[in-house]
Amino acid sequence: MKIASPLARTLIATAVAGLCALPAVAQEKIKVGFMLPYTGTFAALGVAIENGFKQYVDEQGGKLGGKAIEYVKVDDESDPSKAADNANKLVKRDNVDVMVGTVHSGVAMAMAKVAKDNNTLLIVPNAGADAITGPFCASNIFRSSFSNWQPGYAMGKVAADRKIKTAVTLTWKYAAGDESVKGFKEGFEAGGGKVLKELNLPFPNVEFQALLTEVAALKPDAIYVFFAGGGAVKFVKDWAAAGLKDKIQLVGAGFLTDGTLEAQGAAAEGLLTTLHYADDLTHAKDKAFRLQYAKTYKLQPDVYAVQGYDAAQMLGAGLAAVKGDVKNRDGLVKGIAAAKIDSPRGPFTLSKAHNPVQDIYLRKVVGKNNKNEGVAVKGLADPARGCKAS
Ligand code: BEZ
After folding, report:
1. Is the minimum distance from the CB of 78 to ligand 1 under 6 angstroms?
2. Whose CA is nearest to atom 7 of ligand 1?
3. I want to staple 149 with a disulfide (CB 3.0 to 4.6 A). Which of 35, 140, 183, 234 is the partner?
4. Does ligand 1 lie within 6 Å of residue 171's CB atom?
5. Distance of CA 131 from the midpoint of ligand 1 (Å)
């Protein structure tokens, strides 16, 4: 459009100059983008994470660092092929200040790449992909959960300490399963155990029969598995139905029995797992958290709810450090990195790679509880192999 009149040109120029001279208006709200599974085998895990996150924000009166929190969300379906598009929607269409997600390691890796490319803050509230706090670590990426190596390594150590000599492993074939097994093998073989065979099936398949026949034929002392959500329910039931429960010791990363006991019933009784949470911890923080969660959601909390709650605590610590100025990225990141999180799991700090340094509990299923049998490894830090952060 051509603006002919000199008067009109002067008026427009004055208005534009006036606008530029206005002081920057502080952002009133912080936009959190949840990218979580709300359908599929991990659907319940995604819901628990969102519940836990919102519980903490609600406890703070709906604000973190003095700023109101607003949410947008996308169902990632635990589908890595849709992950980059979904994350880009949150960053470019919705303009979120922080992404919170996700459960599945393959999807989380794509989110981490989008976060890095766009310098968007990312807090991972579950997915354990070792690379996220390993070779792919970055100043704007944090995790409130665990690395896949952590519970796997702890279970390997426990199994070796209990004089188990041979084991077979079984998992879904993707990063989380592979890395969980790698951690188990490292702890188990360092203690003198031997892994006879590593079995797997594609994610999220649950046709276990042929594999169970193979495990029975191998006659190991124990089987170590990584399954979670709906797949974990099916595996534990199939294992018991095949008559293997009293013949071969079944152990696993704690996801096998967390948030699943109601559905697994008697088939889960007595199972041993390792995780950074248990159902009968004694600290006051956990008691208050569990009471409030049950009251709000009419559900018992699980490890996923705790990780969501702590993701919000971490964001809260960062925003408090910059008095809500989410654009002060350096201050925000420093505030999160230095935080001591008063978690329902017990207090934890973050490693240089931004992964929790935390106690890993040995748990035994008793009725509907993952009963704490004591700390399997105290203050376990992921080795963060390949992370160049200083
Ligand atoms: C993962 O993909 O990293 C994962 C999924 C469910 C439970 C634990 C880890």
Report:
1. no
2. 228
3. 183
4. no
5. 13
pLDDT on residue 31: 98
Q: Is 1 exposed, middle or buried (0-12, 13-18, 19+ CB in 10 A)?
A: exposed
Q: Which residue has the tokens 């696993």?
A: 252
Q: 3-class secondary structure for 70-81? A: EEEEEECCCCHH
d(CA 30, CA 100): 13
Dump pLDDT digits (tens) for 307-347: 999 999 999 999 999 999 999 999 999 999 999 999 999 99
Q: Is 176 in the pocket of ligand 1 (CB under 6 A)?
A: yes
Domain annotation for the chain: domains and CATH numbers: 29-146+282-350 (3.40.50.2300), 149-275 (3.40.50.2300)
pLDDT tens digits for 172-229?
999 999 999 999 999 999 999 999 999 999 999 999 999 999 999 999 999 999 999 9
Q: What is the pLDDT of residue 42?
A: 96
Helix (H), strand (E) counts: the chain: 12, 14
Q: Is the peptide bond before 166 cis (omega within 30 degrees of 0)?
A: no
Distance 335 CA to ligand 1 centre (A): 27
pLDDT of residue 17: 47
Token pair 């996220």 is at which residue? 132
Is residue 275 over pLDDT 50?
yes
